[in-house]
Design brief:
Strand 13 and strand 14 form a beta hairpin. The chain folds into 2 domains: 243 residues, Beta-lactamase, CATH 3.40.710.10; 95 residues, Peptidoglycan synthesis regulatory factor (PBP3), Domain 2. Helix 2 runs parallel beside helix 7 and helix 5 crosses helix 6. It is elongated and about 90 Å long. By secondary structure, the chain is α+β, with helices and mostly antiparallel strands.
């Protein structure tokens, strides 16, 4: 009986211990600390809306960002105004010395101005300097009215010139670039189009003469014009072109500079400040002038290629010469890698005329064609008559 009691007691203790284990609450595992969400750094935004760098003589684009973005120009519009004026001067239809009388409308223009008064007269050159140096809106309208009668007629000529240059991103509605009033449309263009316009403007040395001026007296010194293009005083070799600003357009510039035969044009559109705009342009000028050299591939009149036989000519051989100068912007470290392919007749029958094409040279760098120049006869060489050819054949 005693043994039975002991067995029952032990069984009860075992069962009680098992029940305790089953009902014991498990310890909660503390949650893992939440990982901080990794956020990507904000994307760096360019301090402009569009930019381009071009070598002027060839039109080679060295860098571009948003090249076809249509952007308000502000006073950069005056570059197209100047283009129309220069074309009229080149044709002989107008002279820089002719007198321009200021209209009532011109005298009431706001923004940048030279404070023209109705009835005053200035030479066309004086007013062109006022446009290109002081960005005179009043001067721009006075010139436009003088040349075509009305501002509307002048704007029409601006847009015709735009089409003839292939500036497909551009549209002009004013001669000065002031912010459009209610119901009006802004003057717009793109960096690519502005390069086409710049190459056209560079045909006119007189324009560069004006855009390179930093200060100039106006109205016999009563008013001193200061160029809005501050790059002129900061970058050696800078000599143009034009700045522009209003709030919706931001700060714009189309500038050009030349160093060691290399002329670059830089456009910056839509910067938040004049300082940022100018610093970006100067940085691009310095960068690409250091990287590139204008390689003289051929000079006009330079003898090139093998001698060409001319058995029937008064002179029996001659060496062809380059028909024109050919230069191309090449990375400095690749200057020695430029190759040339010469295509030339070895022999010609009869005689040759001065300037007659007898072949050409193609200049190559890796897979890029840099330029081509015709090879021509440097002088006339007449064909010998029958008897003289016969005498030559038998040794006389």
């Amino acid at each position: 009986m005693k043994k039975l009691f002991i067995c029952l007691l032990i069984s009860g203790l075992i069962a009680s211990n098992a029940l305790a284990k089953e009902t014991r609450k498990p310890k909660k595992t503390p949650p893992a600390p939440a990982k901080k969400e990794q956020t990507a750094p904000p994307e760096k935004k360019d301090p402009f809306q569009a930019l381009i760098v071009m070598e002027a003589s060839t039109g080679k684009i060295l860098e571009e960002i948003n090249p076809h973005l249509k952007h308000p120009l502000a006073s950069v519009t005056k570059l197209m105004t100047a283009c129309v004026v220069m074309e009229k001067l080149e044709s002989g239809a107008h002279q820089l010395t002719e007198s321009v009388t200021v209209s009532a409308a011109s005298s009431k223009m706001g923004g940048s101005q030279v404070y023209l008064k109705q009835g005053e007269s200035f030479t066309l050159e004086e007013l062109m300097k006022a446009i290109m140096v002081a960005s005179g809106n009043d001067a721009a309208l006075a010139v436009a009215e003088h040349l075509t009668g009305t501002r509307e007629a002048f704007v029409e000529e601006m847009n015709k010139k735009t089409k003839s240059l292939g500036m497909n991103d551009s549209e002009f509605h004013s001669v000065h670039g002031l912010p459009p009033a209610a119901g009006q449309i802004a003057d717009v263009s793109s960096c690519r189009d502005l390069m086409l316009l710049s190459r056209e403007l560079l045909k006119y040395p007189k324009l560069l003469e004006w855009t390179a001026i930093q200060t100039e007296p106006f109205r016999e010194g009563a008013f001193i014009m200061n160029n809005h293009n501050r790059i002129l005083g900061k970058l050696p070799g800078a000599d143009g072109f034009k700045t522009g600003f209003y709030s919706d357009a931001g700060f714009n510039v189309v500038a050009t500079a030349k160093k060691d035969g290399l002329r670059l044009v830089v456009a910056v559109l839509g910067s938040p400040s004049a300082r940022i705009r100018d610093n970006i342009a100067i940085e691009k000028f310095k960068k690409y002038m250091a990287k590139y050299s204008m390689a003289p591939l051929a000079k006009k009149g330079q003898a090139m290629g093998e001698t060409i036989a001319l058995p029937q000519g008064e002179t029996q051989s001659f060496q062809a010469v380059a028909a024109a100068d050919v230069s191309y912007p090449v990375l400095r470290e690749k200057l020695s890698a430029v190759k040339k392919e010469i295509h030339l007749h070895r022999e010609l029958q009869g005689g040759v005329e001065e300037g007659q094409k007898v072949g050409d040279i193609v200049f190559m760098l890796e897979n890029e064609t840099l330029g081509t120049v015709d090879l021509i006869a440097p002088a006339q060489i007449k064909k010998l008559g029958f008897f003289k050819r016969l005498l030559r054949r038998i040794g006389f």
